[in-house]
Amino acid sequence: MSRILKTGAGWRLGWDAAAPEFKGLVGGEDWAIELTEQEWNDFRRLSEQLHETLQQIAQELMDEERIACELESDRIWLEVEGFPNAYSLRLILQTGRRAEGYWENALELREALCTIEGF
């Protein structure tokens, strides 16, 4: 299966391995951004690193304490903000197309991202 589309509350993820340039799709309910394979790979890698960082920092935080953390590559910038078990995610595409996206509750999005086959 070369085409995958997953949706949830406030998010969409898509992958089309047969697409010539823009193989990935990230979006919310009212917006979407197509990503190249390299941008998609960066999005997956950086979002996973941010999630792991939040989990490691969790032991150092008080229950009501929020945290913000960001990572970037040449292609994308990501920021998580909130609590280790409930955080938002902001994406800025830094390539020629320039785009920005935001998910209020990104934990479900991250879990779905990990299930897309081929990665």
UniProtKB/TrEMBL annotation:
Family matches, as Pfam families: DUF1818 (PF08848)
GO biological process: regulation of DNA-templated transcription
Molecular function, one GO term: DNA binding
Protein name per the record: DUF1818 domain-containing protein
